[in-house]
Design a protein that fits this description.
Elements: H1 21-30, H2 41-50, E1 58-63, H3 68-81, E2 86-89, E3 101-103, E4 106-107, H4 110-124, H5 131-146, E5 150-154, E6 171-174, H6 182-185, H7 189-196, E7 205-208, H8 215-223, E8 227-230, E9 236-240, E10 243-248, E11 251-256, H9 262-275, H10 281-289, E12 298-301, E13 305-309, H11 314-327, E14 334-338, H12 346-353, E15 359-363, H13 373-382, E16 388-391, H14 394-404, E17 410-414, H15 417-426
Organism: Marinobacter excellens LAMA 842
Domain Mur ligase C-terminal: 295-417
Protein name: Dihydrofolate synthase/folylpolyglutamate synthase
Length: 432
C-alpha cells in the first residue's frame, strides 16, 4: 500500500541531504510509470551493485494468498525467543512506512531507513524501479546494515516475479493458495500455485500450510528436491477445546485457536523446529501464544467490541466469518463496516461474510483504486444484500455503527489495509 503523498506534484529530483522519509516516499512514487511492474531484471541489476555476494544471513521467504504477515510475525518471535537476531520485511503498512522493516521486532528508525534509500538511489543509476522494488532493495540494505542473523521476507504479490524473490531463499513458507490478483497471477489455483512456488530453491526446507496444495506446488517442490513439509501429511492440526494441537515427528505442541490464523502460526512453528532445533516444546507453545499482528482480527474497543481485519479477498473473508462465529456468545449482533479497492472480488467477500453480518455499513475509500461507496452498494444489492447504510468514509461508517450498536454487539471493520488504517485513526485513544 503506497500511502498517498500530501503533495500531489511529482517529485523527480532525488531528495537532498536531510530530506524526510515522506519526501523520499514522494520521490519513490514518481520515478516509475506504473505502480506494479512484475519482473526481476531491473531489481537484479541494482541488487548486484548493492550486494556483489549473497548476504551472509539466512534468507526465509514467505509467500501465500493470506496469512503471510502472521507467519512472519510468528517466525520473528520464535527466532528471537531462541536467541537469534532478526530482521523482517512486510508490506503494506498501516500507519507509517517504517512498519515495513523491523529490526529485532522494532520498526526501523527514520535515520536508518533514509540511509537505506540513499544507498539504493546511489546504486540504481538510470535503472527505473517501482515504489515496491525500491523499498524492497532498501529493506535488504537496512537488514544488512543492522547485521541481523535471520532475514524474514514477505512476498508482496505472487512469488516468482516479485522483487523479494530476487534473493535466493534458504528456507521458505507458502501459507495458502487462493484466488486473488487475477490480472497478475491467473484465475485458478494451479496457475497461482505455480507463481507462489516460484520462491522455492533446490534442496531447501520449506513448509506449505495449505491443506490442499495445488499439484503445481508439489511438482515444483519434487523437481527441485525441496524438503517440503505439508500440513495434513508431515504435520497435523487437531482442535482440542479452545486450542489446537500441532503434532509433528511425535511431538505435540498446543497452539492458540485464534485470534490469528492457526495454520500460519503452525507453519512458523514447524519451520522454527528446523531453524532453532534446541527450542523446547514449552518455549515454542508459549511464544506462539504471545504473537500479535496489528490489523489481523485486532480488537480496538470493547462494549461494543470493535474488531478490525485487513482481509480483502473471499479466502480471508471466510476465515474472518468463522472467527466471528466462534467468538459469538449467542448474544448481540454483528455489524459490518466494509470498504474495498476496486480490483477486489467484493461480491465474493460479501457472500462469505453475509451469514454473520446482520447489517452493513459501506464506505468509500479516497485512495488510488478505491471503490466508491455507491458502486459498493450497487454490487451489494446484486448479491441480495438489502440491509445496508452508505457512508462517505470509514470513520463516518464507524460512527454510525457505534450509534446503533449495543454493549453486546460486535462491529467488524474490514476489506483493506486502507480500511483498517482509517479505523485505527478514527478510534485512536479509544482502545479499551
Amino acid at each position: 500500500m503506497n500511502t498517498p503523498s500530501t503533495d500531489a506534484r511529482p517529485v523527480t529530483v532525488p531528495p537532498g541531504a536531510g530530506a524526510s522519509v515522506e519526501k523520499w516516499l514522494q520521490y519513490l512514487e514518481a520515478i516509475h510509470p506504473t505502480e506494479i511492474d512484475l519482473g526481476l531484471d531491473r531489481v537484479l541489476v541494482v541488487l548486484r551493485r548493492l550486494f556483489p555476494r549473497k548476504p551472509a544471513a539466512r534468507i526465509i521467504t514467505v509467500a501465500g494468498t493470506n496469512g503471510k504477515g502472521t507467519t512472519v510475525a510468528a517466525l520473528e518471535s520464535l527466532l528471537r525467543a531462541a536467541g537469534r537476531t532478526t530482521g523482517a520485511y512486510t508490506s503494506p503498512h498501516l500507519q507509517r512506512y517504517n512498519e515495513r522493516v523491523r529490526i529485532n521486532g522494532q520498526d526501523i528508525s527514520d535515520a536508518a531507513l533514509i540511509s537505506a534509500f540513499e544507498q539504493v538511489e546511489a546504486a540504481r543509476g538510470k535503472v527505473s524501479l517501482t515504489y515496491f522494488e525500491f523499498g524492497t532493495l532498501a529493506a535488504f540494505v537496512a537488514l544488512a546494515d543492522a547485521g541481523v542473523e535471520d532475514w524474514i521476507l514477505e512476498v508482496g504479490l505472487g512469488g516468482r516475479l516479485d522483487a523479494v524473490n530476487v534473493l535466493d531463499a534458504d528456507f521458505a513458507v507458502i501459507t495458502s493458495i487462493d484466488i486473488d490478483h487475477i490480472g497478475f497471477l491467473g484465475d485458478n489455483r494451479e496457475v497461482i500455485g505455480f507463481e507462489k512456488a516460484g520462491i522455492l530453491r533446490p534442496g531447501i526446507t520449506a513448509v506449505c500450510a495449505d491443506p490442499e496444495p495445488p499439484a503445481s506446488v508439489l511438482q515444483q517442490a519434487a523437481a527441485q528436491k525441496v524438503n517440503l513439509k505439508v500440513t495434513g501429511r508431515d504435520y497435523r492440526l487437531r482442535p482440542v477445546g479452545d486450542s489446537v494441537e500441532l503434532t509433528i515427528e511425535g511431538l505435540s505442541i498446543t497452539l492458540p485457536a485464534g485470534p490469528l490464523p492457526v495454520e500460519s502460526v503452525a507453519a512458523a512453528v514447524v519451520l522454527a523446529r528446523v531453524l532453532a532445533p534446541t527450542m523446547t516444546v514449552s518455549l515454542l507453545a508459549d511464544t506462539a501464544r504471545s504473537v500479535t499482528v496489528p490489523g489481523r482480527f485486532e480488537r480496538l474497543r470493547t462494549r461494543p467490541d470493535v474488531i478490525v481485519d485487513v482481509g480483502h479477498n473471499p479466502h480471508a473473508a471466510r476465515w474472518l466469518a468463522q472467527r466471528l462465529e466462534l467468538q459469538r456468545s449467542g448474544q448481540g449482533k454483528v455489524f459490518g463496516v466494509y470498504a474495498a479497492l476496486a480490483d477486489k472480488d467484493v461480491e465474493g467477500v460479501m457472500r462469505a461474510m453475509a451469514p454473520v453480518v446482520e447489517h452493513w455499513w459501506f464506505a468509500g475509500l479516497d485512495v488510488p483504486r478505491g471503490l466508491k461507496v455507491q458502486t459498493l452498494v450497487e454490487r451489494a444489492r446484486a448479491c441480495g444484500i438489502a440491509g445496508c447504510t452508505a457512508s462517505e468514509s470509514v470513520a463516518d461508517a464507524i460512527s454510525s455503527a457505534l450509534a446503533e450498536a449495543g454493549e453486546n454487539d460486535t462491529i467488524v471493520v474490514f476489506g483493506s489495509f486502507y480500511t483498517v488504517a482509517e479505523a485505527r485513526a478514527r478510534l485512536a485513544g479509544e482502545v479499551s
